[in-house]
Design a protein that fits this description.
four-stranded antiparallel beta sheet, six-stranded mixed beta sheet, elongated, Rossmann fold, alpha/beta
Length: about 575
């Protein structure tokens, strides 16, 4: 990079002094039109060659560096994020830092490189000009000009910061409006209810008018400060020009020197300002890079996540006196939870909303780590296993499932189709969720691109959820976990799903774990874990829990009465 900076600085300084040589030749006794034409031709060819060479060299280096950054930095951060404890997302400071790292990582290194490059070029040019024209008056003029600009720069940054801070409410509301009018989940409400649109427009107009009035005041003051700074800068330039003209009149400098010196004040001032201005910019960039480094060096929650032992087969998963909470000052979401899940069992985790069902699944998956107690896989604690290997033992359908902007087949496999066997797995999974006929009727079949919002196959929310269920089926893991798997399905599709779920557990020798707050869907489970306020209140099958006549039985009767009343 230093070599590129030297080349760039050389071109800038050479251009300045080649002009002086041409002018001195024009007013000299050796002046000749033909020689002038040769000199000018050589000058323009020289400048054209050096500029093209510089642009190719610098541009090529910059492009290569930027591409390398995009190919290395972002994937590295993405890989690291997947190994960070899920609980950290509840820490606002960590989440903001992670967001900055993801937002800035592909550009911030590039920005700081360009800032350092500009710093080197400006510093070299300044000292080259200073070494040739070290006139005291010129240096004083440069120093005053630089001081005025730096003072203006810091004052203006402070004023802008203070203004933006006072108007954060407007910026937040503006972001909110952009979200409301761009996301699909708001689209139906906005089109179905005219009144809410008018209310939002009125509120936006109110916020915007208030912001514009304040911005006008800020802008007027900004223009005054900017005009004052520019006037002082030109006053210094005028005084310097008068001084340089005096040197020319007294024959202390040549006409070429005179024209060069007129630009020296501006040139040296600009380069010195660039040097001083870039220092705080580099510091600012370094703060972003510190965030990126902190994320990359963030400790993995499982000590042996990359090199622990591998798991040959699944026999039993056990919770032993597990406690968990989302923050040190917050109450426990899970309290003293102990149970086991045996191979090929169908387990229902039941309870009302907020009972702790999803948190319990997150612990089972290793996404979060217990504050007390531990989770064991085949009698061995999670942190003794290789995390990537452990994940292969689970297929998961989350309550807040995601559809990715890839093909239907890739959404099911979660990787590209690599063989005819992969295609067979996809088709079997689609038959399992009763989407086979619809998918194969599409022009591109299982290769149809599906997006997170709209796609050419026009999937309903229920059909999207079926694709996610097909994803769990296709993975062929020994344990399948469903978190409220039928939230987007109608009652017929829901009954159909639970019937097929029982068949999958019975005939494919797979362990099934699912959560629900609708108890009439758990009656055929081998074991029911009934949670209430983070406590495992009751454990057993449907008949034993009904005989116990406790919380489960009471809630089951209530839900059954409500269902038949409809």
């Amino acid at each position: 990079m230093l070599l590129l900076a030297l080349i760039s600085a050389f071109v800038s300084v050479a251009e300045l002094f080649l002009v002086k040589l041409v002018i001195d030749f024009v007013i000299s006794d050796a002046f000749c039109v033909s020689l002038l034409f040769i000199y000018l031709t050589m000058y323009f060819f020289f400048m054209a060659f050096t500029r093209i060479f510089k642009n190719i060299l610098v541009g090529g280096y910059i492009n290569q560096f930027e591409v390398k950054l995009k190919n290395q930095t972002m994937p590295e951060i993405y890989q690291k994020v997947l190994k960070i404890d899920f609980i950290e997302y509840n820490d606002e400071k960590f989440y903001d830092k992670l967001n900055r790292a993801l937002t800035e990582s592909d550009s911030r290194y590039f920005i700081i490189l360009m800032q350092l490059f500009t710093f080197c070029v400006s510093t070299i040019i300044f000292f080259c000009v200073f070494a040739i024209y070290n006139n005291a008056v010129i240096l004083i003029a440069v120093a005053i000009n630089v001081a005025i600009y730096i003072l203006y720069y810091f004052v203006e940054n402070k004023k802008k910061y203070e203004f933006d801070k006072k108007e954060e409410a407007f910026f937040r509301f503006e972001d909110y409006m952009n979200k409301v009018f761009s996301l699909e989940e708001y689209a139906y409400e906005l089109r179905a209810n005219e009144g809410i649109k008018e209310k939002l427009f009125d509120k936006y107009s109110e916020y915007t008018n208030r912001y514009i009035e304040k911005y006008k005041v800020y802008l007027e003051r900004f223009l005054f400060r900017s005009t004052l700074m520019t006037s002082l800068s030109y006053l210094i330039y005028w005084a310097s020009s008068v001084y340089i003209a005096g040197l020319l009149i007294k024959a202390r400098i040549s006409l070429g020197d005179f024209l060069v010196l007129l630009n020296v004040v501006a040139c040296m001032s600009t380069q010195m300002i660039n040097v001083l201005k870039i220092i705080p910019d580099i510091y600012k960039s370094s703060l972003y890079i510190d965030d990126i480094k902190e994320i990359l060096n963030y400790p993995c929650p499982l000590s042996n996540c990359d090199y622990g032992k591998t798991l040959e087969s699944f026999e039993v998963l056990e919770f032993k006196n597990v406690f968990f909470r989302y923050g040190k000052e917050l109450p426990y979401v899970l309290q003293n939870i102990s149970f086991s899940i045996e191979k090929n069992e169908i387990i229902a985790i039941a309870g009302l909303n907020g009972a702790g069902k999803t948190t319990l699944l997150d612990c089972a998956l290793g996404l979060i780590q217990p504050d007390k107690g531990h989770v064991e896989f085949n009698g061995v604690e999670y942190n003794k296993y290789n995390l990537d290997d452990l994940k292969t033992k689970f297929s998961i359908v989350f309550q807040d499932y995601q559809i990715y902007e890839i093909t239907i087949a890739e959404n099911i496999l979660m990787h590209p189709i690599n063989s005819t066997e992969d295609e067979t797995v996809v088709l079997e999974a689609l038959k399992y969720v009763n989407l086979y006929e619809k998918i194969i009727s599409l022009e591109k079949g299982i290769h149809t691109l599906i997006s997170s919002n709209k796609d050419e196959s026009n999937f309903s929310y229920g059909e999207r959820q079926k694709i996610v269920i097909a994803r769990a089926y296709a993975r062929k893991s020994p344990i399948i976990i469903f978190d409220e798997p039928t939230s987007s399905l109608d009652v017929y599709a829901t009954n159909e799903f639970y019937e097929s779920l029982l068949q999958m557990g019975k005939y494919q020798n797979r362990t099934i774990v699912f959560t629900t707050h609708k108890l009439h869907y758990v009656i055929h489970a081998d074991k029911i874990l009934f949670l209430e306020d983070g406590l495992l209140k009751e454990t057993g099958n449907h008949n034993s829990l009904m005989a116990l006549n406790g919380k489960y039985a009471s809630l089951y009767r209530l839900q059954t009465e409500e269902f038949f009343a409809k």
